[in-house]
Amino acid sequence: MIAQLAASTVATSTLTASGDDWWNRMFNFDDYGELLSLVHNSIIAGAVLGLVGGLIGVFVMQRDLAFAVHGISELSFAGAAAALLFGIDVVLGSVLGSVLAALLIGVLGTRARDRNSIIGVLMPFGLGLGVLFLSLYPGRAANKFGLLTGQIVAVDDARLGVLIAISAVVIAGLLVIWRPLTFASVDPDVAAARGVPTRALSFVFMLLLGLAVAMAVQVVGALLVLSLLITPAAAATQISASRLMVPLLSVVFAVTSAVGGILLALGGNVPISPYVTTISFVIYVVCRLVGRRRSKRGWTRRATPAAA
Amino acid sequence: MSTPAPLALTGAGLAYGERSVWSGLDLTVGVGEFLTVLGPNGSGKTSLLRAILGLQPLTAGRLEILGRPARRGSKAVGYIPQQRLIDPATPVRARDLVRMGIDGDRWGPGARSHRARVDELLAAVGATPYADVPLGLLSGGEQQRVRIAQALGTSPALLLCDEPLLSLDLRHQHEVTALIHQTREATGTAIVFVTHEINPVLPWTDRVLYLAPAGHAIGAPDGVLTSANLTELYGTPVEVLRSQGRVLIVGGDEHTHHVDEAHE
Fold first, then answer.
1. What is the pTM of this model?
2. Distance, CA of B108 to CA of A170 (rounded, Å)
3. Which among A279, B53, B91, B109 has the fewest CB atoms less than 10 Å away?
């Protein structure tokens, strides 16, 4: 009898322990201050990535390129995996893979239907190549997993420098082509009639998108790039149509998701991406609800009943 | 010398390889003139627009806008496209579209909002009440009003209308054509209106350019749209009927003159 009771107590305590363990693996804020100083660089990287993702996301939405972003990130993953295997810089491999994919999609897929089928063809090929390179790679498994699902690696100063330099190129490029790209994205016929070089702009944009995706793969991993390049912009367009507020909100949402995700992931023992994706998803849901309330109360805000 | 015409074509011709689309086109469109371009599909209406916009070089002759050769991105030419579906989630308001007509082709993010000018353009087409409404939430007629405001952004000497009535109902067709007519009266801009359906623009049309498989004809609507004329242009029997101020063209290209025909 006593033995039985003891046995059941042990069982209960094991259960509790495993529950605690599960929670502790996700959220554990012991020694948080110390950890924070270690990932100082990662947080900067996250903020910069949020800035880039939030800005470029506005155009990804306007140009209906969500699927392309996903396709590019898989080839970026293949490039990074190849780099890992051949012992070259992972960021370089990732950039090469995604820029190549972006340009292929840009050149071959000028029409939306062609584009989607080309992405559908490229994406599994990229993923397959990536899996091949990773299986051949003899190093630590954590490195491999990190490419797909993100990780807080100790971003050293050199790598942070590279990330910031790439981001600066993407942001500067976007600012230069901002107006004609907006015109060509939302109103292609009239933009072409006004002499806007729509094809050249599309090409340049794909190049910038390739760079941005390669950056995002470094932090959130190839599978979840969309959470920083689409979700924040999609959330912003739910609550505003202003040409100033949409990019601004999108950047705020993306930075919040990226930095917030890193800060939360720090205390746990699981990859960073679930935190980032959850934060950005929650922001999206809230915006959607707010947007619905606004459109019910007349978001159209007409001054008088329309004459036409 | 008098001021140069908004549009002047001299011996203009366009051919794709062996196939000649049109040739020997001599035409001058004066200030405030309303020219309607008619013709069946494939007769080169779109090519003509592209040539005027400087996107398609001629293979023969000259094309001048205000006395200068047509060039890409000219501020002297405004362009109104077909109405097309816009995703309601596109974060673009009516006023943003109009602003693009003013400086959308310039580099950089654009610090100036041109607010006063945009308001003025929107007011001129009666679109002030929905200036801040996302474009995708506007009706077809409202969208085309905003498009007219957009095309007037550079105060063009020539306004190109590329089938702007397609997919509009009759009431909106009438409103949009009347507004284009008012615009030319108010600003003196010349109108080149490409359409497959003459009747909505018949009251405002000064001259017709009819592009057809076997040649072209230019002149007042009554002079061009006759059975004898079109029979010759098509090379097959065509009959032109007039009823209650409307024109009905029977034969030739059967599909092109139906009232609510969808295009492409």
1. 0.87
2. 14
3. B109
- pLDDT at residue A241 in the model: 85
In this prediction, residue A11 has a pLDDT band, given cuts at 50, 70 and 90, of very low
Measure in Å the smallest separation between the Cα of B115 and chain A Cα atoms. 13
Q: Which residues of chain B have pLDDT under 70?
A: 1-2, 252-264
Give buried/exposed letters for B4-39 (b at 16+ CB in 10 A, else e). ebbbbbeebebeeeeeebbbebebbbbeebbbbbbb
B179 contacts in A (CB within 8 Å)? none
The CATH number of the structural domain formed by A31-295 is: 1.10.3470.10
What distance in Å separates residue A279's CA from the closest CA in chain B? 22
Q: Tokens 């495993």 sit at which residue?
A: A18
d(CA B102, CA A136): 57
Mean pLDDT (chain A, rounded): 84
Distance from CA of B48 to the nearest CA of A (A): 13
> Which pLDDT tens digit goes with each residue over B124-163?
999 999 999 888 889 899 999 999 999 999 999 999 999 9
| Rg value, chain B, Cα | 19
Residues of chain A positioned with their CB less than 8 A from the CB of B90: 62, 186, 237
Element (H, E) at B75: none
Q: Which two tokens stand for residue A16?
A: 């509790």
Query: Looking at chain A, which residue has its C-alpha nearest residue B46?
Result: A193
pLDDT band (50, 70, 90) for residue A14: very low
Residues 6+ apart with CB under 8 A from A261: A46, A220, A272, A273, A275, A276, A277, A278, A279
Which two tokens mark B115?
């607010």
Beta partners for A97? none
Q: Evaluate if residue A271 carries a pLDDT over 90.
A: no
Which token pair is A30?
Answer: 């012991």
Global ipTM: 0.89
Do A241 and B92 count as a contact with CB atoms less than 8 A apart? yes
Q: Please say if the pLDDT value at position A180 is more than 70.
A: yes
Q: Please provide the size of chain A in residues.
A: 308
Q: Mean of the pLDDT values across residues A180-206?
A: 93
Partners of B19 in the β-ladder:
B16
Whole-angstrom distance, CA of residue B63 vs CA of residue B52: 7
- Chain A residues near residue B86 by CB distance under 8 angstroms: 186
Strand B19-29 with B34-38, pairing:
unpaired
Cα–chain center distance at A188: 27
Q: Which pLDDT does position B255 carry in this prediction?
A: 47
CA dist B202 and B198 (Å) reads 6
A242/B107 Cβ within 8 A: no
Helix, strand or coil, per DSSP, at residue B6: coil
Task: Return the structure tokens found at B54.
Answer: 């400087």
pLDDT at B27: 95
What confidence category does residue A302 fall into, taking pLDDT thresholds of 50, 70 and 90?
A: low
**A220 contact partners, CB below 8 Å, separation of at least 6:** A49, A150, A227, A228, A258, A261, A272, A273, A276, A277
